[in-house]
Amino acid sequence: MKSLFYILFLGLIITTQSSIIAETKEKEETVSKDPTSLYPAKTLETTQGQQTAPGEISFRLTGMLKTDFAYANHSVLSFGFDNLVGPTVAKRQVQARDNEPRSGIYPTSSLLGTEISYGAKAKAIFEADFVDVSKSSVGAETKPRVRQMYFQYNPSSNLQFFLGRTWDMFAGVFPQSFNASAFMSASGNIGWQREQIGLWYKFGEFKLGSAIGTTGFHNDPNVKTNIERNTMPTITVRLDWIPSTNLLFTTSAIGTKLKVSDPKTDSSRDGLPLYPDQTFDPNPSLTKTIANQNSNQRTTLDSGGVSFGFVWKQGKFESRGEITYGTNITSITSGGIAPFQSTTYGETFSDSNLGFLSGGVANDAKSNTKRKFESPKEVSGFLSLNYDFTKQFCFGLHAGISKITNTEMLVGADFNSLPTSRSDQFQWTSNPKIMGSIRENLNYGFRMNYDPEERIRFFLQTDVFRTYYKDIDRYSGVSAHIGSYDPISQTGELRDPGNQSSRPSAVSESIMIRLGGLFRFDT
């Protein structure tokens, strides 16, 4: 038993979503509770049958060994990094090598973990995989990554408390996919893990949940907020309606206020003082003092969203889908495309249709370096279908889309700086001046699996990623032909906007194929 105790720190569990979806009647077929759908989910009755007597500690090893061969005809990105393990978008082809195919064999999305039960009253869950989406070469150098680490306490059959890192209560319907590391990052789905403290209460056909959680996310190394300094946690409320054992409707909402570092507040990052300007002012006033103090305060942004989803299972057929809408969604979850943006008024002017203006007025605007924070608004949705032809063979379809609704405030890429032939420098999507901000992302495909044995699965999955990036506004329309114009002297110069077909396209598409197998070894 002592050796099993050490194993739990490696670990993972596949069946934890069962606590989020409804309890079921004995021996009835239920909606799938496994968010990954890597293999058929166990019913709640099976889990209950393994529970121990009150006061007794028991251990259960969980997980799988999964290896797949991945191929893409063009570059695909995992949250801004070029790799095939957890793809989210097709990369804009700003370099010659972005057009080259790539492939790899990845055992890193294997899962290992343990579940520790204390009778029927409490359960601790540890789970991990070996995926590092912050690396371009996800191979032997990757290290274990915590996916879940939490415990739940059930004081009664209708009430449950949970504390730790687990699947986000917000947007909790996950599309079916064989890609264990990216099943929650496909287009249209914004769920991920979050550190949370929350509860569930069941009454009749309904389950009401609420939780507070951190505002950070865990798959992007370029963290947008300092979560320890963001004193307001996320606040989530969710309501599930289970009219039958085969049907689930769910709606949820999440919100927080993001504290963003202002250039004048953090001397360790931008060399500016943390206190008001102390230079001598020959004409001091109360108004100037208040304005000076306000300029040194941190900026606060509203962030949040709502979601509506369903899971329906009828015989051999299962479907699930979800729609979400929110502001600065990526700042509090991770699968979307709408993080808040930080620019200056000068950059905003240069990127606009008026960026060709010259003279005193234009120079004043271009030299304005006052920080400006933008809040993208995003709508997302997905639908996935699954059909079991036989006990061994299954076929499924999936599609999703994420779209920014206020694209006018997105940062665009200047095509004059696109390094089309640069092979010695790699450009991430985190540099919108090179790539352009993502304004829309589409993903669709099919998948199938064959199970020769109960614990063995071989699978094939295809995905098409179509991603739209934004270019600077003044490089389109009539303004593209104006080199400069001085509104005071009313003089200017025209320019040749160049052949658009010779520049890297703002629309990128990649086709991806995954072929592999897995061995499930839950005890």
The CATH topology turns out to be Porin
The main sheet orders its strands as 1-6-7-8-9-10-11-12-13-14-15-18-19-20-21-24
The total number of structural domains is: 1
**Which architecture would the CATH scheme give at its second level?**
Beta Barrel
End-to-end separation in angstroms reads 14 Å
Runs in which pLDDT lies below 50 for 5 or more consecutive residues are: 1-29, 32-37, 40-50, 220-224, 265-274
Structural class: mainly beta
What is the overall shape? globular
What's the CATH class, please? Answer: Mainly Beta
Total strands: 24
Determine the number of helices (DSSP H or I, runs of at least 4 residues).
7
What is the helical fraction, as a range of percent?
Answer: under 10%
| Arithmetic mean of pLDDT | 79
Superfamily at the CATH H level?
Answer: Porin
Strand content: 35-45%
Q: What is the radius of gyration?
A: 26 Å
Report on the biggest sheet: 16 strands, antiparallel, barrel
Topology:
Layout (H helix, E strand, L loop, with lengths): L1 H6 L36 H6 L7 E16 L3 E3 L2 E2 L6 E2 L11 E5 L4 E8 L3 E8 L15 E12 L2 E9 L25 E11 L2 E8 L20 E11 L2 E14 L6 H4 L15 H9 L4 E16 L2 E11 L13 E4 H7 L8 H7 L4 E4 L2 E12 L4 E12 L27 H4 L2 E16 L2 E14 L12 E5 L4 E4 L12 E14 L3
Helix pairs in contact: 5-6
